[in-house]
Every structure is written in structure tokens, then in C-alpha cells.
Amino acid sequence: MMKIFIILFTLTVYTQTFSEEKVFSVKTATNLYMKPDISSPVIYPLDHAKELIKNKKQENWINVLDQQTGLVGWVLEDDFSESKPEKKIKSKNYDKTFSNFKSRVLEMSKSIKEAIAVDTFLDVKHLGGAAAYVIADDSWFKGRRHANQAFQVYELWRNENQSPSFLSFRNTKNEEQFIVLSGPHRPRYLKSNKK
């Protein structure tokens, strides 16, 4: 039996003021990195024409905010432009992978409900690319097994995408409780401090 190790981090609300200067991905495949280093962990891949908010520049890297996920990371300057591409180029059909993922999560939720009469996942929404969020029953977050189940759901999403991915877990008020995203060795569980 595989053991799952949970690493708890606290998500901080990013209080630094970002300019309203936007940058757009001009490559069909690029990544949001944790640090300004090509060998640093990838947070998740970014679609062509993805809009990000620019913070600062460091050599050939730009520190950016993804307003959809609230995450801050680094992108290569050469992969971005201040002009939005006129036509978006689809590099991967994330809509199809999301559709598959959503049906699998809702089927898993239905099976859990039938087996042990516990509500888990109520809905799944796509943020675009390899980013999505799951709305879960409020009582699910208080359960002992919620973290293990969250990792299982994340693995379904990552396997559909075949790449690093981002998954937020939110309560019925649409308030983010935690996120799971790819880590250098295994997925990371990041607890939200937005309460």
C-alpha cells in the first residue's frame, strides 16, 4: 500500500501591489515556475494568450500574478508580450480533459455517497488550461480523510492533463479552503489562510 505524505503550507494573501500591466503568453507551450530558474519546479503549464499581471523583472524572467488562481510565479520574458495575440492557438484540448475529469469526480462522489452516505464533491469548474476547482460539501473539509481524497482527485486531474496541474478545493460559499498542485517530488497541499 502506497503511503501518502502530506506537506502543509500556508497560502499567504499576496499583499504586494501589482501594477495593472498585463502580459500575454505568445508560445503554444510555456510554464509558470516557482523561481526564476528553468530547473525550478513548474507550478503548471500556461496556454497560448494566457493573461498574467506583471510585478517585476529579473534578468530574462518576469514575476507575475495569475488572477484566476491567485498564484504568483515566474515566466520567461521571451515567452510573453504586452500585446494580446489576435488569435488564440490551442496547443492541447484542456476542455476535453476537463470534461473527462469532471465526470470522473462526480462519479466518484456518487459512489462514495452510495457506499457510506457522505456528501463529498458537488461540482467542478474549469479555470482554463491545467487549472480547475472543486466545490465540496462543507462537512467534507472536517473529515479525517479529506486530504487523502483531495490527493486522489488531484491525481485524476494531473493524469488527464499529463502535466503539472492546479486544483483548488472550495466550500459551498465558493471560499477556497486549500489547493493541491504539483511539487518537485509529489503533490503539495497548501492550506488557505483566507477565512
In short:
By secondary structure, this protein is an alpha+beta fold. Helices cover 20% and strands 35% of the residues.
Keywords:
alpha+beta, 35% strand, six-stranded mixed sheet, 195 residues, 2 domains
Overview of the structural elements:
This protein has 195 residues and is of the alpha+beta class. It has two domains: 8-81, SH3 type barrels; 94-192, GMP Synthetase, Chain A, domain 3, CATH 3.30.300. It contains two helices and 13 strands. It has helices at 94-116, 146-161; strands at residues 8-11, 22-25, 30-33, 42-46, 51-58, 61-66, 71-76, 80-81, 121-128, 131-136, 166-170, 176-181, 188-192. The strands form three sheets. The protein has a six-stranded mixed beta sheet, with helices on one face. It has a five-stranded antiparallel beta sheet with strand order 7-6-5-2-8, with no helix packed on it. A two-stranded antiparallel sheet has the order 3-4. The model is unreliable at 1-15 (pLDDT under 50).
Question: In terms of topology, how is this protein built?
Answer:
Blueprint (H helix, E strand, L loop, with lengths): L7 E4 L10 E4 L4 E4 L8 E5 L4 E8 L2 E6 L4 E6 L3 E2 L12 H23 L4 E8 L2 E6 L9 H16 L4 E5 L5 E6 L6 E5 L3
Parallel strand pairs: 1-13, 10-11
Antiparallel strand pairs: 2-5, 2-8, 3-4, 5-6, 6-7, 9-10, 11-12, 12-13
Helix pairs in contact: 1-2
